[in-house]
Amino acid sequence: MRACLCEPCAPPSHQDSRSWLAFLDRCTTLSLPHYKQVHALMLRSHALARSSLLDRAISTCAPLDPAYAARLLLNLPPPENPNSFAFNALIRAHAAAPCPHTKHQAIVLFRLMLLRSNPMPDKFSFPFVLKACAFLFALFEGKQIHGLVFKLGLAMDPYVNNGLVHMYASCGVANLARQLFDEMTEKNVVSWNSMIYGYVQLGFFEEALGLFSEMNRLGDVAPDAYTVHSVVCACAGLGAFALGVWAHRLATRLSLDNEQSLLMCNALIDMYAKCGCVTIARQVFDKMGSRDVSSWNTIIQGLSVNGSGHEALDMFSRMLKDGFKPNAITFVGLLSACAHSGLVNQGLSTFNSMRSRYGIEPAIEHYGCMVDLLGRNSRLDEAYELITTMPLTPDAIIWRTLLDSCTRSPGKLDLSKVAASHLLELDSDTSGAYVLLSKAYARANRWNNAGEVRKEMSLNNVAKPPGCSYLELDGVVHEFLAGDTSHSRSRDIYSMLDEVEGRLRSNGYVPDASKADVAEPDGGKEQSLLLHSDRVAIAFGLISTTPGTTIRLMKNLRVCSDCHHVIKLVSLIYEREVIMRDRARFHHFRQGSCSCMDYW
Prior knowledge:
The chain is mainly α.
């Protein structure tokens, strides 16, 4: 045994607790096999019967091999005067492991600790097991643990409450997370980060930014790197460019370690790309001191949604040259880039290389991108064949993608019906199938059939989500619905809309009534087009910014072709660049043309 260990870590000659503890302190750099040798020697000398030595032995090897550490603890007789330290170390190690099964063992160990009842959990036990519950979305177990917190009198402990806030937010119960957060009498930066990041995870970006504003207003706790990271992510979700730039400035004033810097840069690349600022996103990427696969995936996806397909493929070549191995997410970005840029041959080649060259089995997301790629290029029969022959069961997104492509291709009404039928079987409670099928009928000028689809939609109590556009001005996000009159500058907005309509018509614009709501009477279809939410938002941008200022907006639905044509004309007539982020991609309108080249 002694020969297997290096001299500085030779076992103590005196077998008392102090000597063993000093010996274990010198063994912090040992590998797991050497630790096992040490543990064998400690077992032979009965040292592990002492609580302090068992605790130290467990805590040193648990991060290296949680399962081995658990066996070491559970297979030994309980020491005299046991405490929670060893169990806490085990629960923490299991909760921090990347494997979901290992994380679940943290909950199992916590339950075993309760069954043994000696020792009982303390305030250090709960944050670790709640972290495992948060990752596993184990709301049922999390609620039981919350009840135990009350029983043990730990309901006022800030660290336990931080774990509960994080658990509830991760499990999608934002109201309970916020209630706990508001009731906390003592909040630290982790408390604020847990709630802000919880909002970001759930897509409640405005709430996240509102809470961050409250944090700054109170001034009791200074934001750290993780706070700013969450704010940057919220700005990305909202397309809030000005706030994102401010958050970027705040990040540059923080002292970040390498891991934090990498995380922050990846978030900034994503934020700038989702605000339509690909140039700045690339600048952040190029200045990074170190990158990981997520960095490459983020910039490739950013180029993709902004219509820079060739640049995305070039970035992939650069990624391979730098020695990074692509993963499944990389290929989602690449295939999406090909679909958004009409690069059919490159997309087919990339898809085929996944399995043959990189050993990555295509998932449902990759098949969805291929259906989108083929459908956008009017190769709908090939797209349908791919769906019917793929080794995976097509989901609702696949059929919706095909149906969406059919609505833009004349003469494909029969295929539209097939796709709609499959989509309704999988997802009959949402409006997508009804709306797209009615559009297919409208494109074929079969208005009665389109009306029947909308009637069936109404009878089934299925509502279409209203079109909504967002425009950020001076750090404030303004929201507009179709025909919205709730804004404080509504009178000025509609005066500008009238001016825009007049100048559009003088430039030869004729509304495409087939893009109007089927429910509108024939005389009102053109008028309803003029009041789409994106046009209202752009009118607000025109009256609220100086000439030449770029107008940035985000829309929750896909922009219709009539509005797309209108915004191109607005960019030409008013000499404005308009950057729109819709449900599918970005559109950069400049001097009467769009970056998508009318291909979306």
